[in-house]
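Quick one before lunch.
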Amino acid sequence: MFMLPELPYAYDALVPTISADTLHLHHDKHHAAYVKTLNELLAEKGGETPESLEAVIRDAARGGGKLFNNAAQAWNHGFFWGAMSPKSDQAEGDLRAAIKASFGDAAALGEALVKEGAAHFGSGWVWLVSDRAGKLSIKSTHDAHNMVAEADATPLLVCDLWEHSYYLDYKNDRKAYLEAWFKELPNWSLAASQLRAATGTGEGWRYPAPNGQDSSSTSRAA
Ligand code: FE
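Model of the fe (iii) ion complex:
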């Protein structure tokens, strides 16, 4: 059974960029529902407990469908919570150099992310990703799709483009949400450790393993 990880900060920690009401709904209702449905689908399917959510996503990616959608949405939200931080820091060191080489500077990266996310049609996610060589790019994916089954794309950051992530706070103005998000919330420490993982030094972010196998995470049953 997969767990719903606790938010890594208080519900009001991202105010005013994201309200406590939005975080309560988004985490306690939307993310929780994906985890609940995922567990129900796995129980219906029977068989052994999967070793990881990443393995479920890779297996289900070929077939698509409900199991893939719920597994990937559970993963995407877990990563999204970690990709935000209440303290606004900056990209430094190797990450800063990679941003410079790939975009010019952080402002240009932000413009590319906002442009891609605002132009994305319908629900989905906008990602900052790195290939194995440390070349960064912006990608958007539809609905639940993510980078877990991609051979050479490690996510550094992600921003949720589903309306439930911004409608209470920004109504239909997705661009304003994206601009505020990029200015205030990216967790550059996570992005830096993901870049190390992409280029072969270190472990990438993983969703908490099922049945509380990952004792380092604080989780509760969904
Ligand atoms: Fe969402």
